[in-house]
Amino acid sequence: MGVPELRNELHDFINHADERFIKMIYAMSKEYEKPVVVGYNTDGSPITEPDLKNRVKSASKRVKSGDFLTQEEVEKETENW
Questions:
Q1: How far is CA 1 from CA 6, 13, 17, 28, 56, in A?
Q2: Pairing of strands 37-40, 46-48
Q3: Which domain holds residue 43?
Q4: Are residues 41 and 12 located together in one domain of the fold?
Q5: pTM of the model
Q6: Spatial contact of 49 and 38, defined as CB atoms under 8 Å apart
Q7: Both 46 and 77 in a single domain?
Q8: Per-residue pLDDT tens over the stretch 32-64
Q9: I need a labelling partner for 8 at 20 to 30 A (CA). Which of 31, 51, 77, 80 fits?
Q10: CB 3 within 8 Å of CB 11
Q11: Cβ of 25: how many Cβ atoms within 10 Å?
């Protein structure tokens, strides 16, 4: 069954559904709209998929511009922790 047929069948279900079914479909639809959480920051705040993509792009730009630490610099810095 293709997407158009599924849409039609779902519309039929919704048009003939009881209140409980309608509320379940509505709640599921609202959850589906929320961005996907792919991780958490050290402060516990969520990292969404768009946030992660932006962070990766930003990091890539910094590396391409030469704004990064070498392995040796990182090792030297961690000695002071």
A1: 7, 16, 21, 22, 38
A2: antiparallel
A3: 36-81
A4: no
A5: 0.51
A6: yes
A7: yes
A8: 888 889 999 999 999 999 999 999 999 999 999
A9: 31
A10: no
A11: 14
